[in-house]
Amino acid sequence: MLEDRLLLVGSMPLNSAEQVLIKASERLGEHLDCIPDGEVLDRRYWILRMAFQVFNGHPALETTHRPAAPEGEEKLIPDGLADMWEFRLRPGIGKISFDMPGWRLGYAKDAQNSYAIFAALKRDGRIRADARFQVSLPAVNSVVNPRIFGTDQNDLAIVRAGFQAALLAEIGTICSVIPPEELAIQFDCSFEITDIYGAVGLPIEGSIERNVTQFEALNAAVAPGAQLGFHLCFGTFGGWPRFAPDSLDRAVELTNEIVRRSPRPIDWIHIPALDTANPAFYAPLADLAVGDTRIYLGLIHSMDSFAKRFAVARRYLSDFGIAGYCGFGRLQPEQIDTCLDEHLRAVSIAGDLVRG
Could you tell me the pTM of the whole model? Predict the structure, then answer.
C-alpha cells in the first residue's frame, strides 16, 4: 500500500538547494523515494525564467510585451497573467534553435550543482541511502504556450520543435552527469491539462494527441535505470487553482494516453485534486489504466476536509500515494514548516483510514 508514500512536486521558497534537501530529508525522508532541490532562486518562478533567460533577445523572436516597470528599472517577474512576457516568431523564420545544446536552458547546470550537494549529504548519512535525486522539467507545450507565443499553430509548432530539441539535449546532459540509479526526472504539465479541458481557447478535439506526442521523444531520452514521473497541474500563477474542472475525467484520459504511448516505463504520475469531496469529481479514477505506474493524488491541502476527500478517492482508486496539489515555490518561507507538518498529518490520517 502506498498511503505512507509522499511526493514533493518540486519547488520550495528557500534560498539554497542544501536547505531544501536537508529540510525535506529531515522532516519527510522516510516517506520520500525521491527528493527535489526545491527549484530555488530564479527557478522558483517555473517557466517564467525561460522568458527572460532564453527567449528574450533570441534573434528569431520578437519580444512584444514584457512586465511593466518604472522607467530605467528592470522587472522580470510579472504581477499576474495580464502582464506576462509575450513573444512572436519573426516573419520568414521556419526554424529556431538554441546555442550551447545541453546547457543553454540551465536545467542541466542546476541539476549538476544540486546533485553534488545531494551526494555529499547522502555520504554524510543525512539523506537515505536509497533515495533518488529528483529533477523537475517543464513540458514543452507548457513553456511554448499560446498565452506567451500566440495562437498561430504553425509558429507554435516551429518554436516548440526548437525548444524540444534544446530540452532533449538538457535531458541527455543530466543523464550523463548524474548516475541513473540516483536519478528521477519529472515532467511538469500545466498547459497540457488546461488545454485538454478546453480552457485555453484551442479546439478540444485533438487536444490529448497534441499534448501527448511530445512525450514519446522526451520519455525515451531518460536514461535506462533512471526513474520517470509526471506532475499534472491545475495551475497556481494568479492563485490556485487557475481553473477548476468538474471532474478528473480528462486528466485520467491524458494519464492513460501518456502511459500507453510511452516508449519506456513511467514510475509515477501525480494528479491534482480540488477542495471537493463530490464523488463525481473522483469517479473517473476508476478508469485509470496505468499498469505498475504509481499514482499520487494531490490531496494535501485544506486539511480539515482531507480525510473525507481521501476516503472518497479510495472508492475509485484503492491504492495511491499522496502529495500537495503543486510545488510550494509561491508560498512564503515561513509557511514551509506548517506545510511539511500537514504532509506528516496526512500520512497519519491516511494510514488510519486504510487500516480502518
Answer: 0.96
